[in-house]
Design goal:
This protein has about 300 residues and is of the alpha/beta class. Helices cover about 55% and strands about 10% of the residues. A hairpin with a 2-residue loop joins strand 3 and strand 4. Helix 6 packs parallel to helix 8. The longest helix has about 45 residues. The two termini are about 50 Å apart.
Length: about 300
């Protein structure tokens, strides 16, 4: 049993707020307000309103904006004075992906589907988003034939549309394996998805590939396994890195304290000069990435 009570991240009700009472949590670059992206947002809000409410938190009697700065800026440009917002119980803006600069393909797909479900016509969406109708339909159908687990794995990743074209050629279990491999390698390109597709056996695919005689599927499969193994070893090293940095910090502090004692320094200089030199170099280290040549 847990002793602590889990608190909800948002209030249950969406709140209607005066735009003038919303305070930005970060500055908006002037160039961004003149960008095509901002113009599309303005046009979208003007035509169909806000689909995703901004996120705010109440602080010192005012509403601090955590997510949705461009949307609120667009409201001001359109002289719209009221906006429905999600009220967060936390004031940590990082939680809301403040460093994400654009929608992923999956997020864009969901936005388009949601707008269509609300009755917005495809023609109107094409006009608002400054796209061809064919592009809107392609984005709407992006996840057709894609396993839901894959959608969850890739929902916030910067995948290209080509990735889903190759995933769609695979059976569900293979799709999941491919998505996990892309996450492991941090590679979401269509070329990588194609290489996974090519390395798949016929039983893992919807339709068998007409392979060239020179293509050794077994070797490609082994290569994929080796890549996964290397990536797993990299993850272990990455986890160990944090512990090594902590240990280095503790060691530096301890050695610095030792070198602060003049009697100890005199002894080391006279009797263990090599050790004394190494101690001095360790104390001077800025990070664990310093080359071995500097240490040894």
């Amino acid at each position: 049993m847990f002793d602590e009570v889990l608190h909800p991240a948002f209030e249950k009700e969406i709140v209607n707020i005066d735009v003038k009472n919303i305070v930005y949590s970060k500055d908006i670059n002037a160039h961004l307000l003149n960008s095509r992206k901002f113009k599309v947002i303005v046009s979208s809000i003007e035509e169909i309103g806000i689909i995703e409410p901004p996120v705010v938190t109440c602080k010192n009697g005012r509403y601090l904006l955590l997510d949705g700065h461009l949307r609120v800026s667009a409201l001001k440009k359109l002289n719209i004075h009221q906006v429905k917002c999600l009220l967060s119980t936390d004031d940590e803006a990082f939680t809301y992906n403040k460093h994400v600069n654009r929608l992923t393909n999956i997020q864009e797909h969901r936005m388009i589907v949601k707008a269509i479900e609300r009755g917005v016509s495809v023609d109107r969406l094409a006009k608002v988003l400054d796209m061809e109708v064919e592009n809107i339909m392609r984005k709407k159908n992006l996840l057709d034939g894609i396993d839901p687990e894959v959608v969850e794995l890739l929902k916030d990743k910067a995948t290209t549309e080509g990735v889903f074209r190759y995933l769609r050629k695979m059976r569900p279990q293979r799709q999941v394996e491919a998505a996990n491999l892309m996450n492991d390698m941090n590679n979401y390109s269509a070329k990588f998805a194609r290489s996974i597709w090519l390395a798949s056996s016929d039983k893992q695919l919807i339709n068998p590939i007409k392979r060239a005689n020179t293509l050794d599927v077994e070797k490609l499969g082994r290569l994929e396994n080796e890549v996964s193994k290397v990536q797993g070893e990299y993850k272990l090293m990455e986890d160990k890195y944090g512990i090594d940095v902590l240990n280095l910090t503790l060691v530096k502090g301890y050695i610095r304290k030792i070198l602060g004692n003049e009697r100890v320094c005199s002894y080391l200089r006279g009797n263990e000069y090599d050790i004394f030199q190494q101690f001095e170099r360790i104390v001077e280290l800025d990070s664990i990435n310093t080359t071995n040549e500097r240490l040894f």
